[in-house]
Amino acid sequence: MPDYGHDLLFGSFITPANATPHEVVALAQESEAAGLDLVTFQDHPYQAAFLDTWTLLSYVAARTERIRLSGNVINLPLRPPAVLARAAASLDLLSGGRFELGLGAGGFWDAIEAMGGRRLTPGQAVDALSEAIDIIRGLWDPSDTSRFRVDGTYYQVAGAKRGPAPAHDIGIWLGAYKPKMLRLTGAKADGWLPSLPYMGSLDAITEANAIIDEAADGAGREPAAVRRLLNVSGRFGAAGDGLLTGPPEQWAEQLAVLTLEYGFSSYILMGDDPAVIRTFGGEVAPLVRDLVAKERAARGTVR
């Protein structure tokens, strides 16, 4: 697999536990202090033990200065796309261009339905997500002064005014694993955001990248238009044989391989241990950047 050449990003994936709300915010601030580029939170509005993710993102944006923010991933079935588009653009404006839109099709349908959402089949959920992406992008474009109309199967917009435009080009990153979602990622998204434990194998990553790339080509896009992000977890300690089990140097070597051979350019650490976040940001990230920069220079692929 190719190295798609994107700049490297490192982030955290923090549990939005409502039992300790100020600790959640402190971990986001710790992520910024550790030099990480991105802080993310899962979005399960039906989970009574969690803070509302959109409220949390807004609060964290106000309590940080540099770090970028995203849901990992935002639950589309419980957040209508037209309202979500305005909310995302507003948060991006208020944060000075620091918001990215990780987006998911939904999966826990009993819980979604219990909160008033509509139950969809997996295939329907992907089609609904495709419609939602079009709506979000359409509302982000106030340069088109026409009233915005979409008569979709799952979502309708009947003459809405467009805007506001976000402060920067917000990336839409999809959490995707199955072929139909991967094809949508290649055709319409700005990023692919899976979790390493769910991928199963490096061969599965290769196969998924190939589906995304083929879909991008089919849509007239460059495969490199899709950033590859990866949620990761592991353990720091003595050198081991497993992936991301060992000292920071071993982590860095393995993440560099995932960049150079499997196309990933963003690594988001799952976990709530501030010491691990500090090690990831302060030790692993600089080592990975150095290894990748040297290999790109040797290959002549520096962009």
Automatic annotation (TrEMBL):
InterPro entries: F420-G6PD/mer, Luciferase-like_dom, Luciferase-like_sf. GO terms for molecular function: oxidoreductase activity, acting on paired donors, with incorporation or reduction of molecular oxygen. Transmembrane segments: none annotated. SUPFAM superfamilies: Bacterial luciferase-like (SSF51679). Residues 15-231 form the Luciferase-like domain. Coiled coil: none annotated. The keyword Oxidoreductase applies. Keywords: Oxidoreductase. PANTHER family: 5,10-METHYLENETETRAHYDROMETHANOPTERIN REDUCTASE (PTHR43244:SF1), PTHR43244. This is LLM class flavin-dependent oxidoreductase.
